[in-house]
Request: fold
Amino acid sequence: MLGDAVLRHRTRVAEHSARIEGEVASRVKSEFISNMSHELRTPLNTVVGFSKLLSEHGRRHLKDDEIVQYATLIHDSAGHLLAVINDILDISKIQSGKYTLDASEIALDQVLQISIASLELMAAEAGVTVETEIATDLPMIRGDSVKLRQVFTNIISNGIKFTRSGGVVTVRAFRMPDGSTLVEIADTGIGMSEEDVKIALTPFGQVDSSRARWREGMGLGLPISKSLIELHSGQLSIVSEKDVGTTVSVVLPSRHSVTALNQNDDVRLGVRNDERFAPAI
Ligand SMILES: Nc1ncnc2c1ncn2[C@@H]1O[C@H](COP(=O)(O)OP(=O)(O)O)[C@@H](O)[C@H]1O
Ligand SMILES: [Mg+2]
Reply:
């Protein structure tokens, strides 16, 4: 009889947790579908609409500047679609353990400078200043420079995206006593509560859907970044306070402690990463 009771109890617990899991899954799923519909359909509508206009040039006699404007809109929208699709492919490869890194010796300061330079325009448009404090004695690290650029571009662009005009994003990088490198990206932006941070690190999680819609995105940047850093045997952590700002810290080990990187890759290897759609530029 005791056995029966335990069994019934276990069944109830299992049913309960299955129900909760189901509820979370369906919430994430419906949020994902509404995000998808915004992130994919808006740019697709632009592509469809403006390419139709261009194709009717014979009848419409478009002016040169209109043609350039429509082509630019199509190009930007297609670029956005590509980025969204790449993010979705990335997260699914990461989740299935089929992600590969191309490891080489890299100078992190260069990776950071390139990431910052690519966001200059975005920062200028947002009225946000990007400051740097990058030590000159950073050790070389072993890693995938394209992936690390993706990580830092995403974190710094978040800093810019979620900071109001007049705010500052500071990128610091220095060598730790144990030979690892610490990179901190600190902003004076809208910040997040502790719970928000957890949501932000969950795939497709956006802290507050209404606010997130104010700033577009799929909620994949941070989970991908965290996984990519962990594939480098590093760590990514976030400290944030609402209305004060956010600091994202990334620790990357020195190249001596990650000599296993390539060997691990072979184990994980399945789908090569260059299967991703490569940007045409
Ligand atoms: N620096 C930041 N300050 C405040 N909120 C942030 C910051 N970075 C990320 N977030 C929150 O975390 C969410 C997820 O970020 P991310 O994974 O990069 O996805 P996305 O940028 O596509 O929304 C963002 O939508 C935002 O709500
Ligand atoms: Mg982002």
The two ends are 70 Å apart (CA to CA). The chain is about 55% helix and 15% strand.
